[in-house]
C-alpha cells in the first residue's frame, strides 16, 4: 500500500478543500501595489515617482502612463548595468542573489537577468501551486511516491562577486526545497555536470536504477534524452524501463509541435501538464485536465499587462511602439493575441518578455502561448504568427503521416528577384517530393490566414520547402549556443542569420 503517497495526496486534497478561489483581477491590483510599495525608494521608483502612482485614484492606469515599456536591451542599458558596477537599490531593493543567463532564441551573447530572493520565493510558491493542482488530475496515490526527472541546465552555477549566475532552470533546481530532494532526479551530482551530452549519458547509464513517475523539461531536449535511454537499453519504448511514468510537465514552449513525436516514445499515455517558466519568472501553469491552457500566476510576484498584437503597435525589431495601448486583466478578451508585459519582484518593469499569448478563459486567467514578437513574419503583408505556423505543421503531419518537431522560415528574394517563404522542416518523411509538401503547406496557410492569402496573390511569389533530419536543428543550437536547458530553436530568421543557417546545413 502506498502509505506515503496516500498521506501526500491527502494533504493536497485537504489544502484544496480549504483554499478559496483566486479572484485574479483583485490579486493583480494587490500585486502591483506591493511591487510599487516595495520599490518606491529604489533609483527606478524615485525616478518614476512610485509614491505618486500609489496615491493616485487608479494606480494601474497611472503606472501605465508614467512608466515606459522596456525590453531587455533598454532596461539593461538604462538601469540593470548599474548592478554590474556595484550600485544597489537600482530597480529593486538591495542586490540580486542570482543572474539568469539567457540567449533566448537569438544565439547572441547571453542576457543577464536579475533574480532576487523574492523571485526565488515567488517561483517556489508557484511551484507549490502546481503540486497542489495535481489533485485535479485524479492521479493514484502511488504516483506521489515516485521520482521526478527534471532535465534542465546545470546546477553548477558560476560564482561571481556577490551573486551566482546560470540558466533559470539550473537556478530553480538548485533552490528546490529539502523535502523534495529525495524525489528529485538525476540528483545533485549529475545535475551539476555542465556538458549536456555528458550529463545525459550519465542519466542514460543510471536510468534502470530509478522509478520515474514524472518528467519535466523542454520537449525537444526531453525527447532526445528519452531516445538515448531507449537506444542504450535496447528498448521498444520508455515505459519498458520506467513503467510508472505517468506525468510529463512541459515548459518553455508550446507542446503541440512535439506531441506526435513525444507519444511515439511512450508505451502508454501519460498526463501532459503545460507550464510557463521564463528567465524572468514563473508565468503560468496548467491547473485543470479539461484544458491545456495555463493559468497566469496572478498572486505570486508578477504584475501582467497585455498589448494587442497588431502590426501597427510593433516595430520591425519586435519592440513595442510608444503609443501601443496596454490592457489590464479586466480589459482583455478571448480570440485576440496579446504581447505579454510583466513587472516583477526581480525589478523588471513593464518588461517585454517577447512572447505573445491569447486568453482561453478570461475569468480563470487561462492562456496559451501563441508565439514570439520577433517571430511574427509580416514580410509583404503575410502576417504569420507562430501559432498559425504550428497549426500548419500539424496538418502536414496528418497529411503525410510524419512528425515535424522543428522548423524555421525566412522571407527573402529568390534568384528571380521575387519574394518567397523558405522553409526548413525537421522530419523523417520519405517518398514525398519537397514541392508537394510546399504546395500543401501553402494551401494550409491560405485557408488559415486571409492576410497570407492576399499576400500570395500579390507580392509573395511562392513557398519553398527543404526537408532535413530533426537532429540538424539540435546541432545548430549546439553550434550557436549549447544543448539543453532553456535553449529553443528560432522559428523565424532574418536574411543574414538564414544565410548562416543554410551554409551550416549545406556543410553538415
UniProtKB/TrEMBL annotation:
<dbReference type="Pfam" id="PF03321">
    <property type="entry name" value="GH3"/>
</dbReference>
<feature type="domain" description="GH3 C-terminal">
    <location>
        <begin position="389"/>
        <end position="496"/>
    </location>
</feature>
<feature type="domain" description="GH3 middle">
    <location>
        <begin position="298"/>
        <end position="362"/>
    </location>
</feature>
<protein>
    <submittedName>
        <fullName>GH3 auxin-responsive promoter</fullName>
    </submittedName>
</protein>
<dbReference type="InterPro" id="IPR055377">
    <property type="entry name" value="GH3_M"/>
</dbReference>
<dbReference type="InterPro" id="IPR055378">
    <property type="entry name" value="GH3_C"/>
</dbReference>
<dbReference type="Pfam" id="PF23572">
    <property type="entry name" value="GH3_C"/>
</dbReference>
<dbReference type="InterPro" id="IPR004993">
    <property type="entry name" value="GH3"/>
</dbReference>
<dbReference type="GO" id="GO:0016881">
    <property type="term" value="F:acid-amino acid ligase activity"/>
</dbReference>
<dbReference type="Pfam" id="PF23571">
    <property type="entry name" value="GH3_M"/>
</dbReference>
<dbReference type="GO" id="GO:0005737">
    <property type="term" value="C:cytoplasm"/>
</dbReference>
